Amino acid sequence: MGQADLPARKREGRPFLLLVVLVAAAVAAAWLALDRGWNWSGLKRAFLPPRSCGIGDVAACPPEEFCAARTEPRAGHRLEGVCVRRYVGPKPLMQFPFAPDHPVVCVQGPGTTPRDGLTHVTAGSAYAVDLRTADPEAHAGTVYAAVDGTAIIHQRCSRRRKENPEDAQDPAGRWCGEGLGNHVRILRPDGTLVLYAHLDSIWIRDSQVVKRGDPIGTEGRTGNAPDRRLHFSVHFAPPDQPWLQILSRFRAEPAAVPASIPFELQYCDPRKRNECARVRSQVTELPCADAPGGSLPIRGDWRT
What we know:
By secondary structure, the protein is α+β, with helices and mostly antiparallel strands. It is built from three helices and 16 strands.
């Protein structure tokens, strides 16, 4: 065989090499699926773009997914939805963020369709609740830590919304702190993060290690809040980096949170840390103003 036949031999070998590459890619994808516990739906999520959907359209996504907004709703911005995977892991138990003798109401529940500027339609807020003191004329309620962890503080928003020092383009302060206002994120080593937003006062320091039941601040109206309230949500992202890197990443990104997840609530007396109610509530079962039946006062009884 002469030198003239070499290019022909190379061309004949290319389909075989292509086949080897495709088989190797398929094996790698299967290994990744097994390693992460994925099924066929998981493989489609890894290699195909997410499915678009309409906010509020229950039938737009498969049963294992739900429709979430790509971004938080803002005036003049078109709200686009995308199907995201539902959380199927264990629901963490959280201490109720207010004292049991301080009645509060839920003014916005999880997974609601936005109206009158309300949110909770993104993957990062799908299971969030907004709570406020039942009597608007009463003093602002003290907010307590729901878990042990390390605090990440954002406290640059003025209590007077027209005096926002953070953004000259937002003189009303509505989007200070990316809309969360003054907020605290408590991060645990297992990847669980608890968010407390719209706070007026914050009583703890950045990087402070807090214990469940410690007072951390008061409810407020900073950021995108129509009235005095507390935005409370739980998030989870499996740790894929060393602990200090995860902490540094969240500290560098105000308002950044992993995906919102469902959780359980337990009423405890912060003055008596070992005394908690035996009854637990699912966050999706709280009586909220935008849920059927409307809002009812929530008052935990730790003696039951």
